[in-house]
Amino acid sequence: MTTRRTFIRQSAFFSAAALVLPSSLLTINPKIGLQLYTLRDTMAKDPRAVLKSVAGIGFKEVESFGYNNGKYFGLTPQEFNAALRANGLAHPSSHYMLAHLSNNWEKAVEDAVAAGQQYMVVAYLLDNERKNIDDYKKIADSFNTAAEACKKAGIQFGYHNHAFEFIDMGGQHGYDVLLKETDSNLVKFELDLYWTSYAGVDAVELFKKHPGRFPLWHVKDMDITPKKFFTDVGNGVINFKNIFAQAETAGMKHYFVEQDVCPGPPIDSIKKSYQYISKNLIG
């Protein structure tokens, strides 16, 4: 039974904790997510078993990929949602390609709702889709249109970057075009912290310049070698503590561990990343 004295004592404790912890860390979503692309080989064989393993590590959220012909990893949206819920996993986001936007996008949006999503994110632009700045302007228009359909269904549209968006194109960058020529309410961004760093861009400066536009993050690290290759979170050179301290400015709601290439079994890599984040970034 909680007495008045106990309540006052607990209140004082939490007030003191608030003075010690950075305010941004107090608002960070404690539910660590995983982009399932890291486990793509095993997901293709037995998605239900993989989801069970992911939940066993401690992950609470996942971001999917590979939506095709109305299915996620061969499962209907309802089946995939049921498999997630059976393992206590939420599914806030999924990845798509630009071609999806012109191929029955309305059906994809319906399926996203059935699969329990809150976000639909274009994950990559093919070389022939982004040859020049005019291409990026056309892409921005298509994003706005697709995002309108998402909004009607209660879903937020987004875009996930790599490094090529920051290549100089006659004094302009594709990423700047996408930020400026998309509706800031309709189109948000999933910032990949590895690729942003690889391109020599300061994530914190992006947050300050475009506050609230980065509700999703990919958390992956960069090793210290000249190759600047992928490594487990906490094992590289990216200053995640500095970045996570600006979560509120960014508008971050969900973040997902991802490792495009792992040095050994991917399941081992995501365990190490999970442990680092849980001990060092969400306090």
In short:
This protein has helices spanning 4-20, 23-27, 40-45, 47-57, 77-86, 105-114, 133-152, 174-180, 193-198, 203-209, 240-244, 247-250, 266-280; strands spanning 33-35, 61-64, 90-97, 119-124, 156-160, 187-192, 216-219, 221-222, 230-231, 254-257. The chain is of the alpha/beta class and 283 residues long. Strand 8 (221-222) and strand 9 (230-231) form a beta hairpin.
Topology:
Elements: H1 4-20, H2 23-27, E1 33-35, H3 40-45, H4 47-57, E2 61-64, H5 77-86, E3 90-97, H6 105-114, E4 119-124, H7 133-152, E5 156-160, H8 174-180, E6 187-192, H9 193-198, H10 203-209, E7 216-219, E8 221-222, E9 230-231, H11 240-244, H12 247-250, E10 254-257, H13 266-280
Parallel strand pairs: 1-2, 1-10, 2-3, 3-4, 4-5, 5-6, 6-7, 7-10
Antiparallel strand pairs: 8-9
Helix pairs in contact: 7-8
How would you characterize this protein structure?
The chain has 283 residues and is an alpha/beta fold. The chain has one domain (23-280): Divalent-metal-dependent TIM barrel enzymes (TIM Barrel). The chain contains 13 helices and 10 strands. The strands form 2 sheets. An 8-stranded parallel beta barrel has the order 1-2-3-4-5-6-7-10. A two-stranded antiparallel sheet has the order 8-9. Helix 7 runs parallel beside helix 8 (174-180). It is globular.
Give descriptors for this structure:
alpha/beta; 13 helices; 16% strand; single chain; 283 residues; eight-stranded parallel β-barrel
